[in-house]
Design goal:
198 residues, mainly alpha, 46% helix
Length: 198
């Protein structure tokens, strides 16, 4: 969270001075490890969402940007960024998280890479993922400022299928969200209808 947020605010401070120069970026350190090490929302996404809250023109636009970024994070093979001088010079395999949750994202990467969740290569993976997320957040903000913002990502068929029944105005309005359902809901109750994700 700190890495994404501070990377943008520090550059703005260098270019424009105040109010960015005195912004308390250290407050963003709580987001490490999925918010205080809880493995919840990925800190990189949390930091980017804070940036959107700071720079978007409306609450609706903030939600749009967050949705775009979170769908990108769930669906893309990451980390794509390879630094010229990495802190740990090791091959960092790509994986698809299928979730915005830190613990799911790290677990999927650990399964793909063969590295452990508390290993040094995992730390390197998260550093690179932070760079990818900061870049994507800035791209979203910059295209918005230029008036050329257009959503690139769409919900998966699975999420659309679940959302078709679990709507605000239905009898099944017992849940809400746009994140990937299958990363947590591995099995459904016996009386649950078959989910078509086409």
């Amino acid at each position: 969270m700190y890495g994404v947020f501070a990377s943008v605010i520090v550059q703005l401070a260098e270019q424009h001075g105040e109010p960015y120069q005195s912004f308390p970026v250290d407050m963003m350190r709580y987001g490490a490890g999925g918010t205080g090490g809880s493995g919840s929302l990925c800190g990189a996404l949390n930091g980017a969402a804070a940036l959107f809250g700071l720079f978007a023109q409306s609450e609706e636009q903030t939600k749009q940007f967050i949705s775009e970024l979170f769908l990108w994070y769930e669906q893309k093979e990451l980390p794509a960024f390879v630094p010229r001088k990495p802190i740990l010079d090791v091959e960092v395999p790509l994986s698809v998280s299928d979730s915005v949750l830190c613990h799911v994202s790290v677990t999927r990467w650990a399964e793909t890479s063969g590295y452990k969740a508390f290993s040094k290569p995992r730390k390197e993976r998260c550093r690179r993922l932070t760079a990818d997320t900061a870049k994507r957040a800035v791209e979203i903000l910059n295209t918005s400022l230029s008036g050329k913002y257009e959503a690139q990502m769409d919900m998966t068929g699975e999420v659309k299928a679940c959302g078709s029944c679990h709507t605000k105005d239905s009898e099944m309005s017992n849940t809400r969200g746009t994140m990937s359902c299958g990363s947590c809901h591995f099995s459904l109750a016996k009386d649950h209808p078959t989910v078509q994700s086409g």
